[in-house]
Prior knowledge:
Pathway: Lipid metabolism; fatty acid biosynthesis. This protein is α/β, with parallel strands linked by helices and 337 residues long.
Amino acid sequence: MTADHRRAAVLCGIGTWLPPRVVTNDDLAQQLDTSDEWIRSRTGIRERRVIDPGTSTSDLAVEAGARALKSAGGGNVDLVIVATTTPDHPCPSTAPEVASRLGLTGVPAFDLNAVCAGFVYSLATAVGHIVAGIASRVLVIGADTFTTVLNPHDRTTVAIFGDGAGAVVLRAGTADEPGALGPFDLGSDGTNAELLIVPAGGSRQRGSGQPLDPADVHFRMDGQPVFRNAVTRMSESAAKVLAQAGWRIEDVDRFACHQANARILTAVARTLEVPEERVVMNVDRVGNTVAASIPLVLADAAAAGDIVPGHRVLITSFGAGLGWGSTVITWPDIDLG
Ligand code: ACO
């Protein structure tokens, strides 16, 4: 096989951060009409992390970003992207503050909101900047404090989501190097926006001239159609990206699927015919951490020695929007901190 010297974006650092407070299913069962048995059997989740008062998304993003930069051997970056749906403020975006707190004042920085698909969309955006020569080293952070938009009395959503952050550094390199990201498959379907929505807080509600209904500030989810869409969209997208990459399903050493629900992961793996032991999973310990989900599960699996250098990893994600995205990477030999 001939070497492929095309310019590419190569993963060279990874870091994560979880808020220290653990909330178990039994803790939830003390406040809500639910049980550890129900949550574990329907979602695979045992516990999740939740921020304490006074903590916000940028705090998690800075911690994960600092660890990713350290893992990449320090040095500067020339772009910062923060994938988040729970920014510190509706305006301005969170990324400039995160960049400044990391000592990167002056570096271009913006937020990208594609909900649970936000990290894969951000990777694709960073790859585009690097391949086009606009940037040569990019910090991509997925950070969400999704518990801040949940209705604390809604057992269907409180059981599922947790807070967290994960980050990677991408550098310019060549397509034949381990760690080179891509190809990508990205997609969206706005006709199903109502399935996962926070109705208030944006221009639709603010410009309506109607008084605010307090219930509309919380996230709403229609669980069963979301489940079906998640399985279909992630399976189709993952199959497309494999075809683009020229990989067969047997070539996939590890499958990193958005950690929404263990049953969704199992169903996607079954549809694609990926053996169960190749599916990486941490949803039991962190729940659905939205934009942080993919970097958190990759870092956890790498730290546990379940993903090792040379492994061919298939990544797929899905979330509100609807939006979805997939990519592939051959895992590089990086410092895991
Ligand atoms: N504890 C106890 N009972 C519950 C709970 C709970 N935590 N949550 C729901 N129930 C009840 C429901 O109220 C319902 O009761 P009813 O029959 O009296 O009405 C019953 O359990 C069954 O509810 P279903 O919705 O049929 O349960 P299902 O097996 O579909 O599981 C779940 C619900 C876990 C939400 C599932 O539909 C799911 O995982 N959907 C996908 C969710 C998801 O991944 N969302 C994130 C997408 S990412 C993003 O972009 C934000």
